[in-house]
Design brief:
With about 475 residues, this protein is of the alpha+beta class. It has two domains: about 20-100 and about 150-325 and about 365-470, Outer membrane efflux proteins (OEP), CATH 1.20.1600.10; about 105-150 and about 325-355, Single Sheet (Outer membrane efflux proteins (OEP)), CATH 2.20.200.10. The protein has eleven helices and six strands. The chain has helices at about 5-15, 40-45, 65-75, 80-100, 120-125, 155-220, 225-260, 290-295, 300-320, 365-430, 435-470, and strands at about 50-55, 105-115, 135-150, 285, 325-335, 350-355. The longest helix has about 70 residues, at about 365-430.
Length: about 475
């Protein structure tokens, strides 16, 4: 079948009107930001001259093989991360479908059949009146067809742009999930080590308190110490004993959370973490950058911006419904009543159709669809701006925690040294009868609080470093190879 002149004219019109796509143009929203973070200089000054952690694989800078092994297991087995990767596969498939919607659709149809006509139907009764009526007839058809909806006003192209942005947003979301899993694993591991350290301190102090109580009991039995002193020592011992189950419970819960993070049954990590180890020291950051760098590095911001782009494209897709839709379809085939004549010249049949669909009397519904699309875009614009603000807040909070908790740990370490000497002096004075038991118990309490506080502050500083790496978008290389857009 030769294309008619009207077909050529329509194809030319499609080419001319392809630039008539409707809908708002998209531009990444401007996000004014200060040149640096408030604690940025202080964080960059930490550990000057020492090793500095690169953002892409920051957990290795903690120099803790167990931490690195747990992170690798989490990346391989974490179920939240697997769900995020599966969502990327879904949006990738949707993009392929949107690409295919812009192309012509072709199909091949064939059929063969035999019909035996009843004489008791109105048609059978009428046909049986003719001498040459045959109740049995055969039919054979073979055809090739194609159809194409012309995207004159960019509706399907906008839908394809939205699908591409959705795919990019889901890919960025998967990266964000990866970063979150790494940071949560490191944070939980540090919490485990901190609780183990606190338990060790409590048990050590319990031994000291038990020895003091035994001494006072011996003195009481000899009539040297009053019963009040014995009961005070026993009360202090009981308080220490009650603290240990609470710490052990926290440790159990934290280990269970770590197991789930690495995709394993709760209780699996007990053997791996049975040997106590110190809280890993927070490394220095190789580069802090400024708020503007977060827009390029934080995958959650990238995901929010891509979702905003998708909503903008859907506004254009909704607006294209104001305009008519044109389609072309054609069919070329053969039809005959005998198999041998299927490819004969007389059996050829062809069809060409120009279709028109226009929601001319449905503009009220189109208006509603456009308003809904614009409302969604406004919502995602606010969400994008909020994501930028929260990203800056995350960095500021993490930097403050890192700097202040390190300062707190230093102060507590100095206090611990002084309180250890004070406790030794008070105990010696008590044995010499110069001070009462209350002063010894008070010195013990203060020393325990200081030692426990040092562990907690060091752990908080290391967790602040983890939060800093996470807030800065550490855990991937945004300049690395990327999947090409379609």
């Amino acid at each position: 079948m030769r294309p008619s002149r009207s077909t050529y004219s329509l194809a030319a019109a499609a080419t001319l009107l392809s630039s008539c796509a409707v809908g708002p143009r998209y531009a990444v929203p401007a996000t004014p930001a200060p040149s640096q973070f408030a604690y940025g200089p202080a964080v960059e000054a930490r550990g000057a001259g020492g090793e500095r952690a690169e953002l892409a694989e920051w957990w290795g800078a903690f120099r803790d093989p167990t931490l690195s092994a747990l992170v690798e297991r989490a990346l391989a087995q974490n179920l939240d991360l697997q769900q995020a990767v599966a969502r990327v596969t879904q949006t990738r498939a949707a993009l392929k479908g949107a690409n295919a919607a812009l192309l012509p659709v072709g199909q091949v149809n064939g059929q063969g059949g035999e019909i035996y006509q009843s004489k008791e139907t109105p048609i059978g009764r009428l046909a049986s009146a003719f001498p040459q009526f045959e109740r049995s007839t055969e039919s054979y058809e073979l055809s090739v067809g194609a159809s194409w909806e012309l995207d004159l006003f960019g509706g399907r192209d906008a839908a394809r742009d939205a699908a591409r942005a959705d795919w990019q947003a889901s890919a960025a979301g998967a990266v964000a999930a990866r970063l979150s899993v790494i940071a949560q694993t490191a944070d939980t591991y540090i919490a485990v080590r901190a609780l183990q350290g606190r338990l060790a301190i409590a048990r050590d102090q319990l031994k000291v308190q038990q020895g003091l109580t035994d001494l006072v009991r011996l003195q009481f039995e000899k009539g040297v110490a009053a019963e009040l002193q014995l009961r005070q020592a026993e009360g202090a011992l009981g308080q220490l004993q009650s603290a240990i189950p609470a710490l052990q419970n926290q440790l159990d819960l934290t280990m269970h959370a770590l197991d789930v993070l690495v995709g394993e049954q709760p209780g699996t990590a007990r053997g791996m973490l049975a040997a106590e180890a110190a809280v890993p020291t927070a490394p220095s950051l190789a580069s802090v950058g400024g708020p503007a760098a977060l827009l390029r590095r934080r995958p959650d911001i990238i995901a929010a911006e891509r979702s905003l782009a998708a909503s903008n494209a859907r506004v254009g897709a909704a607006m294209s419904e104001y305009y008519p839709k044109f389609s072309l379809s054609a069919l070329l085939g053969t039809a005959t009543t005998t198999p041998g004549g299927l490819f004969g010249s007389g059996a050829t049949q062809a069809t060409g159709v120009l279709g028109l669909r226009w929601r001319l009397f449905d503009f009220g519904r189109v208006d509603a669809e456009i308003r809904a699309a614009k409302g969604r875009h406004a919502e995602l614009l606010a969400a994008y701006r909020q994501a930028v603000l929260r990203a800056s807040q995350d960095v500021e909070d993490a930097f403050s925690t890192l700097v202040q908790q390190e300062a707190r740990a230093e102060a507590l370490a100095a206090a611990e040294a002084s309180l250890a000497r004070a406790r030794s002096a008070s105990f010696a004075a008590y044995k010499g009868g110069a001070v009462s038991l209350v002063e010894v118990l008070d010195a013990d309490r203060r020393l325990l609080e200081a030692r426990d506080g040092v562990v907690q502050a060091r752990a908080a500083a290391s967790r602040g470093a983890v939060a800093s790496f996470r807030a800065l978008g550490g855990g991937w290389d945004p300049a690395g190879p990327r999947t090409a857009s379609n």
